[in-house]
Design goal:
The chain is mainly α. The chain is 40% helix and 6% strand. The protein has a single domain, classed as Serine Threonine Protein Phosphatase 5, Tetratricopeptide repeat (Alpha Horseshoe), CATH 1.25.40. The strands form four sheets. Strands 1-2 form a two-stranded antiparallel ribbon. Strands 3-5 form a two-stranded antiparallel sheet. The termini are far apart.
Length: 475
């Protein structure tokens, strides 16, 4: 079911905003841009809607969550090896040799903050033009903007913040916290907020989003995947709270989406549950498992050397000594069927195309494992519900296996291991390493990187240091 037709796009302030379009399961196709002055961009409901879609379009940029940022968060971990040695395609991300002038450093920062500013401009424009929209719709659009802003801040602070939240309870330097619209050079100089301040702003945005987003986009399964709804905000909160070790709060939020016993399925809002077949999520796209994804089509691709398929099937290969070597990940497991080859380069075909896929940002399987880990960490022994959730994930792909850890620590280790298998190629491995404040393991010729090392996080871009006089580097 198509959900938006014949939309124009608009430019507001400094940024040209690309609108969403839909036609027969194709989304975000580019349309010829029409430049609209900032004075008229919020004159009508249709023009405001264009600005909403423009925020999503920047979030899905190939240099951000539509491609490279997901790759970066994969290949810094130990489950991938670089094949090409190409600096353009992230070898220096993989081997922890980034410097402040690298294109990857500059581009991820620039697109992330562009997403944030589009969200801020949208919020400011709605507030400056009361009466154009009903109050409930105005709040809904602002909630969509704040959801996107929360995601952008989360990925940026985890890349560029000096230490993970759990290293020092968020006391380290994070990133500039830009929460107001910028339409000129005024305000360019802004100091770094602490990691804790950024996390608090992220949670504030997600709480607002939960309250004001719709329960669902009625009659449009595609909108329920590519636009934020209430369950999207709740789901992402579980991830954010895990990074803060707020296990009781993870349980509270996840309980809104996951029942106490099987069958595991949301009871309100958009219906979410595991797909019976693992691969369905990555071939059909608009499924009940997909909570929030970023769509790509031939006409609206992530760009050359940005797509997940290219990276997994050309630039990088599975590390034979990584999760691939796990003896417990059996040959009968459906996820093993995506492994291609037995000698290097060993490929992984979760994303078999750059131009016809949805980039999965969060799905129901993650919420289930987030809840399982939180329950396990709060328990003193083997938590029965956590174990049931873990086995639901494993047995979806391999019904012959029942995981049976005998201690709390074994259960936590099994959950973390399952995450490496289940989310391989989805950009969660770096985040799972950092939130535990543990070293990046050695891989190939690259040694382990300790949490205290400057290379553990990304350098602040040289351009930001040049133009933001209040900025200081990571050191």
């Amino acid at each position: 079911m198509n959900y938006i037709k014949n939309l124009k796009t608009a430019a507001i302030a400094f940024t040209a905003v690309v609108g969403f379009a839909a036609c027969n399961k194709q989304y975000l196709e580019p349309i010829p841009q029409t430049v609209i002055s900032d004075a008229s961009a919020f004159e009508t409901p249709d023009r405001i809607l264009q600005q909403v879609f423009g925020v999503y379009s920047q979030l899905k940029n190939g240099n951000f969550l539509g491609g490279r940022t997901i790759v970066y968060n994969d290949v810094r971990g130990e489950d991938w090896v670089n094949v090409t040695g190409n600096v353009v395609t992230a070898v220096n991300v993989w081997n922890f040799t980034l410097i402040s002038t690298d294109n990857q450093v500059e581009n991820q920062w620039a697109v992330g903050y562009s997403t944030i500013n589009r969200a801020n401009v949208l919020i400011a424009g709605i507030d400056a033009n009361p009466g154009v929209l009903p109050a409930s719709l105005a709040n809904r659009y602002k909630a969509e903007a704040r959801f996107c802003r929360a995601l952008a801040n989360f990925y940026l602070v985890n890349a560029y913040g000096r230490r993970p939240f759990n290293a020092d309870n968020g006391a380290s330097l994070g990133i500039p916290l830009r929460l107001t619209a910028s339409t000129s050079n005024a305000g360019a100089s802004q100091p770094r907020a602490t990691v804790a301040q950024v996390y608090n702003a992220i949670l504030d945005d997600l709480n607002f989003a939960e309250t004001n987003l719709p329960l669902s986009y009625m009659g449009s399964s595609d909108s329920n995947v590519v636009r934020a709804h209430r369950n999207s905000a709740i789901a992402f909160k579980t991830r954010v709270l895990m990074h803060m070790n707020r296990w009781a709060d993870v349980i509270t939020e996840a309980n809104k989406l996951v029942p106490a016993t099987a069958p595991f399925q949301t009871s309100s809002g958009v219906t979410h549950r595991l797909n019976p077949a693992f691969l369905t999520t990555f071939r059909t796209y608009t499924t009940p498992e997909s909570i929030f994804s970023l769509p790509m089509t031939v006409l609206n691709a992530p760009g050359t050397q940005n797509g997940l398929g290219t990276y997994h099937n050309a630039e990088f290969a599975l590390n034979p000594n990584g999760i691939l070597a796990d003896a417990g990940w059996g040959a009968a497991d459906a996820r093993r069927a995506l492994v291609s080859g037995t000698v290097q380069p060993i490929r992984y075909t979760k994303y078999n195309s750059d131009n016809d896929n949805y980039v999965a940002i969060i799905r129901y399987a993650e919420v289930m494992l987030n809840l399982a880990e939180a329950l396990a960490r709060q328990a003193t022994g083997v938590d029965a519900r956590a174990l049931a959730l873990l086995n639901a994930i494993r047995q979806r792909s391999d019904a012959s296996v029942t995981l049976a850890p005998t201690t709390r620590d074994e259960l936590i280790a099994a959950i973390l291991n399952e995450r490496r298998i289940e989310f391989l190629g989805e950009g969660l491995r770096t985040q799972d390493i950092q939130r535990q404040n543990i070293a990046f393991p050695a891989k190939g010729s690259v040694g382990a990187v300790q949490p205290t090392a400057v290379a553990y996080v990304w350098p602040i871009p040289a351009s930001e240091l040049l133009y933001n006089t209040a900025m200081v580097p990571n050191q």
